[in-house]
Amino acid sequence: MLTTKGFARWRSPSSAPSNLEAILSNMKPIALLLALFGALPGAYAANPIVTDIFTTDPTVLVDGGRLYMVTGRDETKKGGKGYTMNEWRLYSTCDMQSWVDHGVVGGWRTFAWAKSDAYAPDIVKRNGKYYLYGPVQHDATKPGFAIGVAVAASPLGPFKDARGSALITDDMTRETPNGWDDIDPGVFVDDDGQAYMYFGNKVLKYVKLKPNMIELDGPIYTVGLFEFEEAPYLHKRNGVYYLSYASRLPEVIAYATAPSPTGPWTYRGVIMEKNKFTHTIHQSFAEFNGKSYFFYHNDALSNADFRRSAAVEEFSYGKNGEIPLIAQTSSGPKPNPGLGCAKASR
Ligand code: FUB
Q1: Where are the domains of the chain?
Q2: Which is the most buried residue in 18, 65, 237, 288, by most CB within 10 A?
Q3: Ligand 1: which residues within 6 Å by Cβ?
Q4: How far does residue 120's CA lie from ligand 1's centre (Å)?
Q5: Using an 8 Å Cβ cutoff, are 7 and 98 in contact?
Q6: Cα(297) to centroid of ligand 1, in Å?
Q7: Which atom of ligand 1 approaches the CA of 308 most closely?
Q8: Test site for ligand 1: of 71, 116, 183, most ligand atoms within 8 A of the Cβ
Q9: CATH number of the domain located at residue range(s) 2-315 in this protein
């Protein structure tokens, strides 16, 4: 459940540590009183995170002690088939319980050269700027899905086209005959400063990005990955590179690991089983206030394929760094406020 401007999901004050001030400053007085007396029954359910619209493909960024989640939006009508997706939206939290709705931060209209469809985006911060990578349908000059990059001085936007042209167009990759093989960018900046963008449908590809984050730095490579479908997402932990992805159809989330950002990849298994009604499930990971989180989408609000909802689960890595099989819950993570959560502002 999400309440706009974030005061839902407050638990008893006994669970609140020393950053109380930051959290309380985000709460409206009436909610504050209710919360302090533990009187928000039913305000604890966490999944799906957003209940007033359908949100998809969550990707996350931790910045200034705040966790930002960018999503797509399903606008397909009840009973409808296929995607109607026009925009990317932003939410944030200080404690994994109370979410603030920051509204629309972009969409296919961000790019003058695009004509429709805002699919699964990714957001990255570098050198004080925020980069939003989005797959959109290119206009007739370069038909098919393309990946654009937009930039802003704040995660709240406004995001503007950083190049005036697409970073990737359909004619740059020829491995699959369809027009949607260049979707789902997952951008990762390694500790040595090298940035990589993984992307693709059916065939996984990656390309290095220049330090300016808006130009390719070399050729596009393909990667053979077991039962790869889409949604590649790269993260690093304790020197190990984790490449998670949607696998099979209907999709499960699986992962592989490697000693470098470019492989060689060893398949490690399934992280989350398929949804009941929607054939997709698109993931991302975050470390936030000392805990590990797995974001994904499901069909819990709609019982339908094309009306999906972002959700999150807390999990722990195994002693050898393995990611466990994660179950979907409606309760979601426990409260996890940290020491200093920056105000979200432009
Ligand atoms: O949301 C549109 C598409 O469905 C995404 O690009 C894929 O990852 C799948 O979730």
Answers
A1: 2-315
A2: 288
A3: 56-57, 72, 83, 119-120, 183-184, 230-231, 280, 282
A4: 5
A5: yes
A6: 10
A7: 1
A8: 183
A9: 2.115.10.20
Q: What is the mean pLDDT of residues 323-344?
A: 94
- CA–CA gap between residue 312 and residue 210 (Å, rounded): 32
Residue nearest to atom 4 of ligand 1 (CA): 280
Nearest CA to ligand 1 atom 2: 119
pLDDT per residue as tens digits for the range 22-73 = 444 444 444 444 333 333 333 334 899 999 999 999 999 999 999 999 999 9
The pTM is what?
0.89
Nearest-angstrom CA–CA distance, 173 and 2: 40
Atom of ligand 1 nearest to the CA of 281: 10
Question: Which positions ≥6 away from 251 have C-beta within 8 Å?
Answer: 229, 230, 231, 274, 275, 279, 280, 281
Q: What is the pLDDT of residues 214-249, one digit of tens each?
A: 999 999 999 999 999 999 999 999 999 999 999 999
